[in-house]
């Protein structure tokens, strides 16, 4: 009997997190908490979104929560199609708005307003819309190298100041 209770409780937990039915045979989708950093905002926004919901629905939910919290800069809820969702701040390629959240993977994202009037990333880069996008690994690694080089340069400047201070302390 105890084994039966454990099995049923495991089934209930899996249906709670991954969707299930309400006893009458009606399917419902589970919800997940997504954390989205909005460009220009000081902190992330947390919103509950359906697991089977599209990226565009997630953008709409985040913009609504952002507006309800009274954050700055103000976002226009009617301009939801002009926003792009990215995996992180350094990723240049936006997520496809037709994909579902379970297809995209991850729960932390970065939201920014698109530069053009609703055109796709491939069209802005001069590629044909039907062609396969080129991987952005060299650009991302270049940016990472630039960040590391900047940090090393700062460390070098601090060490130079330290050596000057120590050199003057031993002289005087």
TrEMBL record:
Superkingdom of this protein's organism: Eukaryota
Protein name, per record: DUF7054 domain-containing protein
Residue stretches making up the DUF7054 domain: 30-112
Organism: Colocasia esculenta
Pfam families given in the database record: DUF7054 (PF23156)
InterPro entries: At4g22758-like, DUF7054
């Amino acid at each position: 009997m105890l084994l039966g209770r454990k099995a049923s409780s495991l089934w209930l937990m899996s249906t709670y997190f991954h969707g299930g039915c309400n006893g009458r045979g009606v399917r419902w989708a589970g919800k997940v908490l997504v954390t989205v950093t909005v460009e220009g905002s000081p902190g992330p926004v947390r919103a509950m979104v359906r697991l089977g919901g599209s990226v565009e629905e997630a953008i709409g939910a985040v913009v609504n929560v952002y507006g309800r919290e009274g954050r700055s800069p103000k976002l226009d809820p009617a301009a939801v199609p002009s926003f792009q969702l990215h995996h992180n701040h350094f990723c240049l390629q936006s997520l496809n708005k037709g994909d579902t959240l379970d297809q995209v993977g991850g729960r932390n994202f970065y939201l920014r307003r698109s530069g053009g009037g609703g055109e796709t990333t491939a069209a802005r880069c001069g590629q044909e819309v039907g062609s396969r996008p080129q991987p952005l690994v060299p650009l991302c690694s270049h940016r990472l190298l630039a960040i590391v080089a900047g940090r090393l340069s700062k460390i070098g400047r601090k060490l130079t100041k330290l050596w000057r201070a120590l050199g003057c302390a031993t002289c005087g």
